[in-house]
Every structure is written in structure tokens, then in C-alpha cells.
Amino acid sequence: MEEVKRDAIKKDRQLMKSSRERNPKQPLCWIASARLEEQAEEMEAAWQLIQKGCEECPNSEEVWLEACRIAIADARRSSPNPNEAGCKFGA
Questions:
Q1: Could you tell me which residues belong to the region Disordered (predicted)?
Q2: Full-model pTM
Q3: Which domain holds residue 48?
């Protein structure tokens, strides 16, 4: 079962990469790519993708909101006290 899941994630990553390359100014490509990595528990990859999305789509409110959501979710996951977790955006 795990192998099937890994294969599906690998295939989805290839699809998302192709989508980003063809449509680098499309905010949803970056958001979907970051969410895929988040679901795969690859928070560093999710963070790198959404940062690149912010660079490619600087006027997209959706991408910036997603970046904040990911930063907060990551801080909560890694903090011993989730109520004190801060936003690392711009760090």
C-alpha cells in the first residue's frame, strides 16, 4: 500500500512540475504543488515551492495567504507549544 502511495505522489509531483513550467504565473499551480508536498509531509519542499510562487505571482493574494497558512502550520507542527508558534515568513 505504501508503495502505491509513493508512486502516486511521484506521478503527481511530475504533473505539478510540468504545470508550473507551462504556467509559471498561474497561482493555483504553486498552491497545488505546495499542498501536495504538505500532504506528503515534506514541509521544506512545500515552503520552497510557495516561496517561489510568491516570487512568480507577487500580486496573487491567494499565494501569499497560502504562504502564511503553510508557515503557521509548520510552526505549529514543530513547536512544543503550538499556541506560541510564530510565523516564519520572510525568515
A1: 1-23
A2: 0.82
A3: 2-84
User: What is the number of structural domains in the chain?
Assistant: 1
- How many alpha carbons lie under 13 Å from residue 35 in its C-beta half-sphere? 11
Higher pLDDT, 73 or 33: 33
| pLDDT for the residue 74 | 87
- Report the C-alpha gap between 9 and 78 in whole angstroms: 23
CATH number at residue 71: 1.25.40
Give whole-number Cα distances, 89 to 2, 10, 11, 77, 82, in Å: 33, 27, 29, 15, 17
Q: What is the arithmetic mean of pLDDT over 3-25?
A: 95
Residue 91: pLDDT over 60: no
Q: How far apart are CA 70 and CA 62, in angstroms?
A: 12
What residues contact 9, with CB distance under 8 A and at least 6 apart? 36, 40
